Amino acid sequence: MRKVKKTLITGINGQDGSYLAELLLNKGYEVHGTIRRTAIENVNRMVNLNHIRNKIHLHICQLDNHLAIYKLIAQIKPDECYHLAAASFVSYSFEDETSIINSNFNSTHFLLSSIKELVPDCKVYFAGSSEMFGYALNSPQDENEKFNPRSIYGISKVASYHVVKNYRERFNLYTCTGITYNHESPRRGYAFVTRKITSTVAKIYLGYEKCLELGNVNTQRDWGYAPEYVEAMWRMLNKTNKPDDYIIATGKLHSVKDVLEVAFSSVGLKYESYLKINEDFYRPGENIPLAGNCEKIKNAIGWIAKKSFYEMIQEMVMNDIEILRGRNL
Ligand code: GDP
Domain NAD(P)-binding: where (predicted)? Predict the structure, then answer.
């Protein structure tokens, strides 16, 4: 009989963690995931897992605690580990920055060192980010683009990327970094601009809200569809024998204005009638947009982004309307 593969997903209750858990359950894996103690006590933070809660194994684990991670790896002995958990909010306070850099870097290092000691054959995916390129010098960026992070979050991801690469080169571990560009879905957090727009459009449509306040609507992003991005993560560990780092992106740029146009027109409204520009939401200038060159991942493991931007935004609006109508709770 074939052995059931075991996987550990850190941050399983997030957008990507929950889609990845679904994908791996469908592929027959035994799925384990870590969550924070504060998450299990908050129904809103567990909502992405409601439909699969009894099929997965949840572990409360503080990822900046080396001993806790070591014990967890010893208990599960995973065949694959997807390290998705990270403090990702943009913050400018000194205390927050210290904790972001500490917890994001230490969790990655503790996880790798425990895997090296206990299950050196375990394949590891690390969630990198286009924020590693930050103030990029070229667009689109490929895997050879110089890192130029503009936030402590980006810096913590670059530092982790190097430790992931170092474990691959020095200890021969199967470790990879996926440099994901923005990816959205009905499970995206409400603070991100796509979800802010689609959830407010749903409220306006149903008469709960009158306007939408945004910052710079000319900013452009490379927006992909999260369920497809978790497929890319799995492929990086399973469709090649050579561990490597890949950009995961669509390669296409859209502006915040494009999101507005699609979201409002999907319910027959014009965004111009509802939009208020609020300088408080402006971010420092971005001259060169973050767009990913996806040639490497396409050629090596046959992954390409498929879902259209328009379909994705429309799906998010429809989902937010359903939530407000109480059908999706
Ligand atoms: P991220 O900044 O790439 O992680 O993703 P966001 O979804 O938070 O922001 C995407 C872009 O939308 C950024 O360039 C923002 O400057 C722009 N944006 C414009 N108005 C807003 C807003 O009200 N909220 C957010 N989150 N972003 C906004």
Answer: 8-316
Domain ranges of the chain: 6-183+224-248, 189-221+252-290+306-327
> Are the C-beta atoms of residues 83 and 76 closer than 8 Å to each other?
no
- Residues with catalytic annotation? 129, 131, 153
Whether the Cβ atoms of residue 201 and residue 317 lie closer than 8 Å to each other = yes
Query: Is residue 7 within 8 Å of 214, Cβ to Cβ?
Result: no
> Is residue 88 within 6 Å of ligand 1 at its C-beta?
no
Q: List per-residue pLDDT tens for the chain, 329 residues long.
A: 679 999 999 999 999 999 999 999 999 999 999 999 888 788 888 999 999 999 999 999 999 899 999 999 999 999 999 999 998 765 555 567 888 888 999 999 999 999 999 999 999 999 999 999 999 999 999 999 999 998 899 999 999 999 999 999 999 999 999 999 999 999 999 999 999 999 999 999 999 999 999 999 999 999 999 999 999 999 999 999 999 999 999 999 999 999 999 999 999 999 999 999 998 888 876 678 999 999 999 999 999 999 999 999 999 999 999 999 986 44
Q: How far is the CA of 259 from the centre of ligand 1 (A)?
A: 11
Q: How is 40-102 classified by DSSP, letter by letter?
A: HT-HHHHGGGGGGGGGSEEEE--TT-HHHHHHHHHHH--SEEEE----------HHHHHHHHH
Whether 6-183+224-248 and 189-221+252-290+306-327 share one fold: the answer is no
Q: Ligand 1 atom closest to Cα of 283?
A: 16
User: Measured from the CB, is residue 193 less than 6 Å from ligand 1?
Assistant: yes
Report the CATH number of the 189-221+252-290+306-327 domain: 3.90.25.10
As a CATH number, domain 6-183+224-248 is 3.40.50.720
Spacing, Cα 169 to ligand 1 middle (Å): 36
199 close to ligand 1 (CB < 6 Angstrom): no
Measured between alpha carbons, how far is 268 from 45 in angstroms, rounded to an integer?
32
